[in-house]
Amino acid sequence: MTSYTNIKEFLLGRRLDSGEAAHQSLSKPVGLAVFASDALSSTAYATEEILLILSMAVSGGALMWQTDGTILGLSWPVAIAIAILLFIVTISYRQTIFAYPNGGGAYIVARDNLGETVAQVAGAALLTDYILTVAVSISSGTAQIISAFPELNQFRVPMAVVVIAIITFLNLRGVKESGRIFAVPTYFFVGMMFFTLIVGFIRHLTGTLPQVQGVEVLEHQVLEPLGLFLILRAFSSGCTALTGIEAISNGITAFKEPRSRNAATTLMWMSSILIVLFLGITFLSNQIHAIPSHDETVISQLGRTVFGNGSIFYYLVLAGTALILLLAANTSFADFPRLAALQAGDGFLPRQLTYRGGRLVFSWGILVLAVFASILVILADARTSALIPLYAVGVFLSFTISQVGMVKHMNLVGKLKPGETHDGLETTIHYDPRWRLKQVISAIGAVCTFIVMIVFAVTKFTSGAWFVVVLIPALVFFFFRIHHHYKEVARALSLRYTPVDTERRHVETLILVDKVHAETARLVNFAKSLNHPWHAIHIGINPEYAQRVNREWKERFGDEAELVVIPSPFRLLAEPLEEYIESRQAADPTGYVHVIMGHLAMDTYWEQALHSNSAFLFNLVLSRLDRVVVTTVPYQIHHRADGKGYETGEYQKVEIPVATGFQPTEPNRLAWVHKQDAPAHTADAPEASEPDNQT
Amino acid sequence: MTSYTNIKEFLLGRRLDSGEAAHQSLSKPVGLAVFASDALSSTAYATEEILLILSMAVSGGALMWQTDGTILGLSWPVAIAIAILLFIVTISYRQTIFAYPNGGGAYIVARDNLGETVAQVAGAALLTDYILTVAVSISSGTAQIISAFPELNQFRVPMAVVVIAIITFLNLRGVKESGRIFAVPTYFFVGMMFFTLIVGFIRHLTGTLPQVQGVEVLEHQVLEPLGLFLILRAFSSGCTALTGIEAISNGITAFKEPRSRNAATTLMWMSSILIVLFLGITFLSNQIHAIPSHDETVISQLGRTVFGNGSIFYYLVLAGTALILLLAANTSFADFPRLAALQAGDGFLPRQLTYRGGRLVFSWGILVLAVFASILVILADARTSALIPLYAVGVFLSFTISQVGMVKHMNLVGKLKPGETHDGLETTIHYDPRWRLKQVISAIGAVCTFIVMIVFAVTKFTSGAWFVVVLIPALVFFFFRIHHHYKEVARALSLRYTPVDTERRHVETLILVDKVHAETARLVNFAKSLNHPWHAIHIGINPEYAQRVNREWKERFGDEAELVVIPSPFRLLAEPLEEYIESRQAADPTGYVHVIMGHLAMDTYWEQALHSNSAFLFNLVLSRLDRVVVTTVPYQIHHRADGKGYETGEYQKVEIPVATGFQPTEPNRLAWVHKQDAPAHTADAPEASEPDNQT
What is the pTM of this model? Predict the structure, then answer.
């Protein structure tokens, strides 16, 4: 067959030895780029979300932000509060990294401390959120591109799917390669944003920072009075800045050794950059009086106000933002397959998700993520606004579960005395004098993220969050069904209860004859070589043809064994065979029925398609019968080297003239001859005149 | 497995016995409806096509039809000429029906009289034209519906594909059923058209037939001076009225006995109705001064002028026309599969096209037609004007070939003396005193249809006919490639050159061990029962896991045979196995290597999907190796009747307590126990703790 392996190697690169796994791990800078892009991208819209909610405030019937400029300025204290929560959650996840150095994030923490059910809930929440992250960030990034080129709007959905395909392909090429490629745009974004903040801050200090001009005001549908609930909503919306923090703790195994330490350091860098960018953007947005608008993002307003309309730096900022939004998807491609492999390893997802492909990545996991994200993008018509309400409920649920789990974990730590250790399931737990402090931090974080989750679920329920609220329990149900299946199959197969069956049993052999030709001769030869009682059967779909087969069999192989024609008035193949086999089994219920069939194996796919390939069909159907064993005897048909027709296997047919001259109807007594031994080919024999009907 | 057979029977009806074929044949009235709908539908646009061409005539710089009313009246003599040609071609095909009573039309005539190559050209022309007929008629019928409901325009393509699917489904249910269903709209159309013509003619005779009002004039892009070429073009365009005449001669086998006589009679009815409708429509169109227009069809103009705007009959005429256009597709569904089966039977198309399905129809042929027609509709965006230029070149090519073939056939007849007969390939040829006359008729018809074909190919070349001109030779090339393949395979397989290999050969047996559990026990048992030298192999993708398997094997089956672990550093399954097998073959090149593997067979598809099913993969890959035989030993896992977990096959595992109480780690000495003999199930055994990894 034309080499499928060669095509794969060409597209994805040479297959990697399992021993090369260490070389495929990431350094801290590359790891930051891979795992932090999701978190960093949320700075592009977190500030905007806060301002959006605050601008809904009304007082005395009038929109407050228009009458009283200070309302939007509330975004600053809100941002400070968010930054504090961000810090808390970071500290909590840092503990997780050290406590669970094999990765897995909220899933492992829950599994280890809160039980299987909570772990599956965490897994469901994280997996759906990874898929949503890809869908949202790709849609959002595509939307940015379309803002620049509005005529591309009709191709929105195909563009998004193509981007997903590209990221999928790069990820299939391997962690190291995709990491390097994705590092460039990530650092470009970070660099541009820092540059923007620095220039903006300098201008602010020198009093040369203007206010933003020419922004079209957003018309709100729903308005709310200023109050605690509104502040809470603004806080919650701004908490989208936290999405992506868990990424590193899930993907520790991608880092070079010492893995935990490198991952923890990368986490601190990520959070620091995140806090600085977030607070900086919020501060400057307040200084330029940025206004939430449907037509222009806050980042855009910031960029053009700091650098001036039409400045090259303004466009670079926009480009960097678009890129980071697209790259946020890549973090999911790093984490989803690892988590899926973990859950599959525990038996809660199909086992195929644990397989590593040629480049040492979890190929199945990557492809599953790509497919589901693409479906979601197509269904949502690549509109970010349709997807955002589903987003973030799952993330904050997993934050809550993870921190609650760490709280419980710290109890274990607290029970130790100095110098004592405890061998946990995942790692050795050491004594830690500050365990109480860490526990309190995690507890505060858990309460805050829980509140944020509830606020999201309630306020966005009707716009889409209901779907996630329904989906997560449904997924957990399926996970347990799968787990139950694997568990029960293992029990059924366990040798603990299986008697080891030492008796030899009777084997009755049947060979399936379709046409009487060279392949049949091989089936006969194999059956004879096996040396068990055997006979031949033919399924008589066409009665006239069956008679002919019967006759030809008698001529050629009549001495060897009998041919039984099984009638098939409904032109079925498998059912008559099943019935016949069952009748033989009735005669001898403890023995095996060994069905042998031929299969013509061609050199190329198109030639193979021209033949009935019924061996695979029979294999599938007969696999339902107990103690029925199916054997496929392939008969290879190769292209002849001189291009004139076909020959079989490594044996060449030679016509060796007998004493009285060439008699084409007399069987050649010299059997298989190795090609290297064959005499020079004699003149082409007369053309076969047997029409093909059923091969 | 959930029954695929049951679903098929529910959708398509109970499976038909091959002996019921006679009952599935058609009576003449139903046969007319099935096979004539294509021909009858062309009356809906044939007249219009003539008027369209004539209205392009210019003289002295002015459009002639506007200055001189008689130019459009030229359509009448042109229509007469077309009717004469129609009659000639009918006579020719009537001869074909009697000469070739097994159907096949132009293909058989060519094969029998003009050689294999011409036959394949005819086959290619007919097959492409059947696909085009479906695409054109469905698009045209859909366009009629959209004229009535313009808001449906955006769903044009999905609507067309859905209609194709419905017709496909009805055809899969069987010839008789689909025929009955389609008869109603066909006769409705015929009835309405006759009614229209009668009423119109009466009004004409009584002088109460007005001229048509309110038609928006068609703007021509290309104009031509009045001349012979223009008349020729008008004649050719009008000849689309002939498309569909060959349908009955292709589908003779669908009729009840005596088939030829019934088919011939039906053909005469069809042509008579066709001529009357065509001439009637043309005549009345001239009387009402119908004008070719993009916005309204000539039939519509006729209907509302004869019956009056808003008359119910006017709408019924439109409805009938839309229906017959959709039904024209059905004729192709009757003929394409038969022709494809014929060509496949000769070895020029994949053999699968000869298979009859459960309802005695050529299921593969029907599905192939549906798929290609749908692709064409999607590519052409369901616009009839894009497809029409491709249309009819193939039809007139096949008309020409068929009639030339009949001319040659008549030479054979002419050589006979009265009372003599000649056994032809298809039928017995009798003496016919009027053979010379019939030959001349066919010759005239051949020349005319050839001219029409050339005119079509030239005038519509750039608008799409080039595709057909390129496609038909390409198809013929592929047909011969396929034929060459089947011929050469038959030669390679022919027992004429194959020595019958009577020696028994050595069989080395290998069992593939993945995990050590109950299925392994069965593989061991089968290998022992076969009684040839055997050992076990494990492909070591994961070195730690391989060690464990090795250990477990030694514990359980160490006495039986050795386990060889094959290293697989690149995590591949098939390649290491291949290499190992080749090394064993090197030791004994003339023997068989018998590879035995297990396959867990579940009850439902979703459960099956949770397992690796690698047996099928191995079967596929190992089929390339000569003298390597692959056996699948299935191990069924069934749902237990009480719903608690699984059990295997017809044997139940029973734990029979030994004298000193239940010892779960001691193998039970009573092996397989038939379920009916099993003692009442004891308490559930402790849960298996072996994690599943690779099953």
Answer: 0.75
Rounded CA-CA distance A695/B13 in Å is: 29
Here the ipTM equals 0.76
Quick one: angle between helices B43-54 and B228-238, nearest 10? 170
Q: Does A694 touch chain B (CB under 8 A)?
A: yes
| H helices present in B256-379, as ranges | 259-287, 298-307, 312-345, 363-379
Closest-CA residue to B361 (of B9, B10, B15): B15
- Measure Cα distances from A185 to A37, A311, A320, B362, B640 in Å: 9, 20, 7, 57, 56
Interface membership of B636 toward A (CB under 8 Å): yes
Question: What are the chain A neighbours of B635 within 8 Å (beta carbons)?
Answer: 493
| Those residues with Cβ within 8 angstroms of residue A268's Cβ, 6 or more apart along the chain or in another chain | A90, A94
B548 and B582 in contact (C-beta within 8 Å)? no
**Residue B630 at interface with chain A, using a CB cutoff of 8 Å:** yes
User: Under an 8 A CB cutoff, do A490 and B522 touch?
Assistant: no
Q: Are strands B651-652 and B646-648 parallel, antiparallel or unpaired?
A: unpaired
Give B261-302 pLDDT, tens digit per residue: 999 999 999 999 999 999 999 999 998 888 887 667 788 888
Residue A566, SS3? strand
Chain A residues whose beta carbon lies within 8 Å of the beta carbon of residue B598? none
Shortest distance between the Cα of A377 and any Cα of chain B, in A, equals 21
Nearest residue, CB atoms, A17 vs list B569, B610, B665: B569
What is the residue whose two structure tokens read 């035989």? B629
Length of chain B equals: 695
Task: Give the nearest partner residue to B668 out of A1, A499, A667, using CB atoms.
Answer: A499
Nearest-Cα residue of chain A relative to residue B610: A350
SS3 B632: strand
Least CB-CB distance to B570: which of A15, A649, A672? A15
Res B428: pLDDT = 73
Task: Name the DSSP class of B497.
Answer: S
Side-chain-facing half-sphere of B115: CA atoms under 13 Å: 2
Choose, out of A623, A637, A639, A655, the residue to mutate when testing the contact with B (most B CBs < 10 Å): A623
Residue A531: its chain B contacts at CB < 8 A? 504, 531
Are B688 and A490 a contacting pair at CB < 8 A? yes
What is the rounded CA–CA span in Å between residue A259 and residue A430? 18
Cα–Cα distance, B494 to A645 (Å, whole number): 13
Phi, psi of A652, deg, nearest 5: -110, 145
Bond prior to B667 in cis (omega within 30° of 0): no
For helices A43-54 and A228-238, the axis angle rounded to 10 degrees is 170
Q: Nearest Cα to A373, choosing from A45, A37, A136?
A: A136
Beginning with the edge strand found earlier in the chain, give each strand of the sheet holding B62-63 in spatial order.
B62-63, B57-59, B224-225
Residues of chain A with pLDDT under 70: 1-7, 19, 21-23, 60-62, 65-69, 148, 175-178, 216, 218-219, 221, 294-295, 358, 424-427, 496-501, 644, 649-695
A441-A453-A284 Cα angle (round to 5): 75
CA distance B39 to B246: 9
- The SS3 of residue A195 is helix
The dihedral over CA atoms of B122, B123, B125, B127, expressed in degrees to the nearest 10, equals 160
CA distance A299 to A668: 86
pLDDT for B426 beyond 70: no
pLDDT tens digits, one per residue of A463-477: 788 888 899 999 999
Asked if B68 contacts B363 with a C-beta cutoff of 8 angstroms, the reply is no
Cis peptide before B258 (omega within 30 of 0): yes
